[in-house]
Amino acid sequence: MSTQQVIDASTAIPTDPPPPPVSVSSRLGSAFAMFRNKKSIAGLVILGFFLLVAIFAPWLAPYPATQINAKARLQPPSTLNWLGTTHLGEDVFSQIIWGTRGVMVVGILATVIAITIAVVVGVVSGYTTGWKSESLSALANVFLVIPGLPLIIIVASLFEDPPLWVIATVLGLTGWAWGARVLRAQTMSLRNRDFVLAAKANGEPLHRIIAVEMLPNLLGLIAASVVGTMTAAVIGLTTLSFIGVIPVSNYNWGTILNWASAQGAFRQNQWWWYVPPGLCIAAIGVALSLLNFGIDEYINPRLRSAGERARALKKRGMDVNDPLTQVRSITPSGKSD
Amino acid sequence: MNSDVAGAPTGVGTVGPVSPEPSDPLEMGTTATKIHNKRARIPWRFLGKRALFYTFTLWAALTINFFLPRMMKGDAVSAYLARNQNISQEAADALRALLGLDTDKTLWQQYMDYWALLLRGDLGISISHGLRPVIEVISGALPWTIGLVGVATVIAFTVGTLGGAFIGWRRGSRLDLFIPLTTFLSTIPYFWLGLLAITVFSVNLRLLPIGKAFGVGLSPTWSWDFISSVIEHGVLPASTIVLASLGGWMLGMRNMMLTVLDEDYITVAQAKGMPNRRVLWRYAARNAVLPQIQSFALSLGFIVGGTIVMEMVFSYPGVGKMLLDATNAKDYALMQGVFLIITLSVLVANIAADVAYAFLDPRTRQTES
Questions:
Q1: Rounded Cα distance, A220 and A24, in Å
Q2: A144, B134, B143, B271: least surrounded by Cβ within 10 Å?
Q3: A113-145, pLDDT tens digit by residue?
């Protein structure tokens, strides 16, 4: 599907350089084309599932996250406690459901902050020239070079009991630089393309050039950096919680693992306590990398077509890497790409 | 491709004459001959820009480093006094002066003092390590981190890049399954992977020791007992780092290979009847590896700072664990020192990446200069 999209775009450009009069719905459709492949959809479904769990946590969780039950300590999974209990008799299943909130809130908020900064800095520094461009680029590079995790650990320890939004802000402020750098490079290459020059010659105002002419061409890269930033934010949050930099009052999957590790669950094989939270983090990671694969294949169709072409040749009993069959394969089918 | 690099003379910006023998246009395009074109000019503008950038970044990082402890709540001396009860008020004041924490100086004066000390190579003294100089404390931990993580990074890079090149070559085959598998391993949080590894291999199977860099009762000597103990203790942390970072290298190389294999010169090479092995390693992989080498140089910088979690999980006596302990003990001098070392190593790695790229890819030099 994405190759179809690319061919459409390439044939459309020479015929009508100004934005073609298309309906809003079809334009929205093309903006979401990168999500219309199996990998992206699978990733979105998993993310949507966790988002729903986070929203409906009060109805889904059978117990409050920190309800202590002295009679049921360190119980393995049962019908009462689906994923067993902790050293205080807290229900692990409920803790995971409640913990989803912290992960989703911080993940989304940090990503929004980071991507906003990345898009503004990247596009402005890519579009402008001279000292403005250079200084913004230098700023991004400084943030890229300064080691993130040590800085976050030090900054987070400034607060006695940091609320979720502070953690999200710190993660966002330290995580925007890579996106800005990638977007800057792409904006710089777009700046001198014909359609942007034509828009400039038509006297379109700057905000319109950036919003209407450039942003649609940057969507793929922005989506890819959203995915990358969110992965980093989720891993960052759970890692910080696990280390103990974020206090235990903010319940998330990392906190559960912190308790499990501190109480020796790993040494005593209380798997119901430490395996599920880790698997949940891994599931979010898998969802985000599926999305990333999907977007990658949309941006760079070779990644997908290379494998498909090779498999198609193999079905006909040929090998891509064999020069002789390659020459032969083009003539009978008449297919050349 | 980079024939003019190795022997690049360092003459100052001379536009040398075109090589004496008129090169045959037929020979120019083939890989069989070396093109003797103009002597490589030194891209002063490019070098100047980079130098400016690194100076600026260094200044920014060191200034952040200056402000960090001053933003933190709690005073290092109070934390120290809480642990050592029998210290008089005068001694505490003397300690404050020694640590540069006396409050009767203006912030600007403190900043100047900080730079003066830094330029003399004096990072202060660490109160959580018996008032020993910070440099001494850090240099005790640095070899452990660099040794273990360095080896793991090199292994992951080599295996990942070679594997990625091969998987990209055999595109569409079952080998493609390696990509989602290794990516999965790199998306699960590292500390969880490490803890699981300890549970399985140390607690249940009792194959490998739990944590620490060497066995109890051994002292660092060049004896076989000690070295084998270090290796035994390093297997688990190193292999988990390799597992966790393999995916990135493999995916990056494979994606570059797929892009490069589509280029015309690959088709030409195959049409010429060149053996596949030569096309794969000398033509495709050689070009696809360029971004990998740059990321490798960058990742060398994160060796020092990027493994805080590993060192915590395995109680490995490296720099990352030292930073965590220093933060918890409010040992600001040590914290600053570790942060400084981490930042410096990242900067040096960035310079190395720049140099490597300019050396390997002539296009960067031409466009930037």
A1: 19
A2: B271
A3: 999 999 999 988 888 888 888 888 888 888 887
Chain B residues with CB under 8 Å of A309 CB are: 172
pLDDT at A115: 94
| Residue B228 sits at the chain A interface (C-beta within 8 Å) | no
Rounded CA separation B163/B161 (Å): 5
Question: What string of H, E and C letters represents the secondary structure of B30-49?
Answer: CCCCCCCCCCCCCCHHHHHH
Structure tokens at B149: 């993580």
Contacts with A238 from chain B: Cβ below 8 Å: 189
- For the cut 80, the answer to whether the pLDDT of residue B147 exceeds it is yes
In chain B, residues with a C-beta closer than 8 Å to the C-beta of A313 are: 172
Q: Any CB–CB contact under 8 A between B20 and chain A?
A: no
Interface mutation target, options A145, A182, A337, chain B, most CBs of B under 10 Å? A145
Q: Is the alpha carbon torsion for B62, B66, B72, B75 positive or negative?
A: positive
Give me the total of CB pairs closer than 8 Å, taking one residue from chain A and one from chain B.
152
Decide if B172 and A243 are in contact by the 8 Å CB cutoff.
Answer: no
Judge: B57–A242 Cβ closer than 8 Å, yes or no. no
Q: Enumerate the residues of chain A whose CB falls inside 8 A of the CB of residue B195.
A: 257, 261, 266, 274
Residue B29 has pLDDT above 80, yes or no: no
Write out pLDDT tens, residues B235-254: 889 999 999 889 889 988 99
Task: Report the CATH fold assignment for A46-305.
Answer: MetI-like fold (1.10.3720)
Contact A150 B190 (CB under 8 A): no
Q: What is the mean pLDDT of chain B?
A: 77
pTM score of the predicted model: 0.77
ipTM score for this prediction: 0.75
**Contact assessment for residue A2 and residue A33, using Cβ atoms and an 8 Å cutoff:** yes
CB within 8 A of B326, min separation 6: which ones? Answer: B126, B128, B332, B334, B335, B338
Is A242 in Cβ contact with B191 (below 8 Å)?
yes
Query: Is B173 within 8 Å of A310 when comparing Cβ atoms?
Result: yes
Is the pLDDT reported for residue A316 higher than 60? yes
Nearest CA in chain B to A228: B187
Contact A242 B203 (CB under 8 A): no
Beta carbons of A160 and B199 less than 8 Å apart: no
* Contact at CB, B189 and A289, closer than 8 angstroms: no
Least confident range from A118-122, B2-6, B335-339: namely B2-6
